[in-house]
Model the fold of this input.
Amino acid sequence: MKAITFKNVITQLKDDLIGKDSYRGVTLSYSWLANQFGHISLGFIPTFIAYQIFSKHHPAQKTAFYASLAVSVAWLLFETYNFLGPLLLNRRSISKALYIPGKKYVFTPAWGNVAFDTITDLFFFWFGAFVSGILCAYSFKMLAVIMIILLLLLVPAGYWYLTKMYLQNAIYPFQFRLSQWEGEISAEDHEKVIQFLTNKTEGIHLLVFGTERSGKTNLSVGLSTEFSIKHAPCTYTTAMKIFSKFFDDDREILDKNDSLWTWRTSQVMVIDDINPGKPVRKDIIDAQTFLMLLDNYSRSEINREIMRSKNVIWVLGEETRAPYAELWKKMLLSIGIAETNIFSINLSTNQGNI
Done:
């Protein structure tokens, strides 16, 4: 069964298009729609200005068509540079407007996904340019171009709107992709992150250890975000929140909160803030306490079974005390998770991220 149905999409679209965001907040799907309107405007306005300048000395239809074409080509060159720059140099940009090489990526971006996003933006730029052109001076040629662009937009627009729904229903605390992570990580731990990302097996658990500002939350959110972009139902929660959710009735939660899934029905879950790590030396939650709360439920075996079948990222504290990591691993083993499905990484050497 799909986590998000066509009916869910229509409901979300209606909510995004009707009503005031001043009192209900802005969703990611709404932001995406507004962003695409901005792309249309960036094609529309330059075309209109170019037409007004050159139409005084040239035929209207030709001027409108070539103005639309010129603006479309300009955006194609701009986006091609912004895409090929980081792809060829394998370096992130230090500017949000134009590609300026900076540091190398720790985790390589999903270039296919980035290319698809770039192409989608271009379609909206082109649509705006040719709509402006046809309003300035109608021609069948421009009408045909507009219809072709609209047809080509159906698939990417549907994909990205649906993707934003998967992202917003995960309830991440911020938007962050794995390739944005800039911390320090050993080659061995880097490989474990990639294994978690690419493994097709269910019930994989990744223990992320680190001090405060070691980047463990950023890494975990970025990793889970990659699953959301692949349209996997994901859930972000903190340890304190998940304790109360162990007792929740899923049907009641879905009915009351208009949620599309719960922690039990998600495929990937991030459990953040289990322990902060250094400089906080004392554990707030230990492995046995977590297990006790997991089992403190009239149907505790259900929670254990769900944990066994789910991919979970555990954001823990510092691993300086030898038994600490082993106690959490032992807890996972006690609920039936295979040892081969448990990975752990340590980010304590990195002090540059939150």
Notes: The CA atoms of residues 95 and 101 lie 8 Å apart. The chain has two domains: 6-169, 178-346.
